[in-house]
Amino acid sequence: MKLKYKLLDKLHNVSNSEMDLLVWAVQHSDETSGTMYGAYYKDYCDEYDRCKQSFYNALYGLADKGIVTFRRNQNDAGTTSDYDITVNDNAYPWKGSSEATYRNEGYVDLASPVFRSGEFKSLKAKEKYLALEFRKRSFETGKGYKHGVRAFYEAWDKTLGVTDRTVRGYIHSLSKVCGFFSVGIKDGFYRITSRICFKKPAKGQEGHRYDQDMYNEQAVRMDLNRNNIKYDKTGFDDTVFLMYQYASAFAQKHADVKTYLSAAIHNSISGHKWRDRSLSAPTIHYHLKAILDGLKDVPETQSAKQNSKSKKNRFNSFSQRDNDYGELESLLLNSTI
DNA sequence: GACCGGTCTAATCGCTTGGT
DNA sequence: ACCAAGCGATTAGACCGGTC
User: Fold this and answer.
1) What domains can be seen in chain A, in order of their start residue?
2) Is strand B within 7 Å of residue A52 (CB)?
3) At what angle do helices A257-268 and A325-335 cross, to 10 degrees?
4) By CB neighbour count within 10 A (0-12 exposed, 13-18 middle, 19+ buried), where does A236 fall?
5) In angstroms, how far is B11 C1' from A260 CA?
6) Is the CB of A221 under 7 A from strand B?
7) Does residue A326 carry a pLDDT above 80?
8) Which nucleotide is nearest to A77 (CA to C1')?
9) For strand A68-74 and strand A181-186, is the pairing parallel, antiparallel, or unpaired?
10) How many CA atoms lie within 13 A of A224 on its CB side?
């Protein structure tokens, strides 16, 4: 959910579909690697109401500009395909450590409701870019972004390759139309401050999500896509919820709930034809519980120790690329009913 | 034969600008 | 404030080679 300040320089001339893809990738990415795993073109097209060509244009365009690198993932039959998209130089590999260089690198937090809003999505590409810059600048100085009026126009005209008039139009939509920033001119200076809409909902409030939640959802979405399982929002939410419901139960057995939820999803469509698969959260629940019951208990003392140590990072430690169904299935055979 | 991911291409859209 | 030229961005949909 973090976009490093130092990457903003590259974004002044991206197209709108490229900007959307970048924001989308960051919002669903694993912060320790700066990578969104299992990015599926249809999800992007649904999210931003774009045609599929735009996904490819955006992906290749961002790669050509050196902003992302990507890898295509296909199953053996070539019937499903998705991409891992790494935003270059956007990783926080030692997050939580005392390494000051990584810990202190500034970023725009794309978890803010502003960056998911319809207002933001409907902005022009360069307005989106300015929103990121203004967010950075107003945040960095604390008291708002201050810039002499003439210098302000010269700087942004040059960066964006447009005239004063057009920059004024951008400012207008960011302030008056969207209400993202308060913008005023006083004593020959522009002064721009972020408005309250950037504030994330607190825990317990409507719309609250931890940064990790989008990443967890993406893991489920990837498994559903790869198994060609059709789903609606309710079923999806119910399935994601299983991950939280069973996290500690799996942790007590030294197991990663994500890995086994993935297996349970896979098991849930056993016997269903490729084209006749729709999500059944209760069926997945059943399989997940069966897997849990089949796992060996670990000795009490060890369990308590391991659990307290790993609880906090449980969701961070998931490696999504390690899914080997052959291996998982043999595990299941050995451990379940 | 239906459907999928991905590509190709022509048509259209949208943005910016200079002129009014 | 509005208009229209210029041109890059985006779209729709035909198409290709593959699987179900």
Assistant:
1) 2-110 (1.10.10.10), 129-198 (1.10.10), 211-335 (no CATH)
2) yes
3) 90
4) middle
5) 49
6) no
7) no
8) C19
9) unpaired
10) 24
Predicted confidence at residue A300, as pLDDT, reads 54
Q: Hunting for tokens 């989106």 — which residue is that?
A: A128
Phi-psi region of A96 (alpha: psi -120 to 50; beta: other; left: phi over 0): left
Residue A96 confidence (pLDDT)? 60
Q: Name the nucleotide nearest A228; use CA and C1'.
A: B4
> Chain centroid to CA A15: how far?
20
Q: What is the pLDDT of residues A36-75, one digit of tens each?
A: 999 999 999 999 999 999 999 999 999 999 999 999 999 9
Protein residue at shortest CA distance from C1' of C17? A78
Strands A107-109 and A181-186, sheet pairing: unpaired
Cβ atoms A265, A229 nearer than 8 A: yes
Q: Which two tokens stand for residue A312?
A: 């906090």
Q: How many residues does chain A have?
A: 337
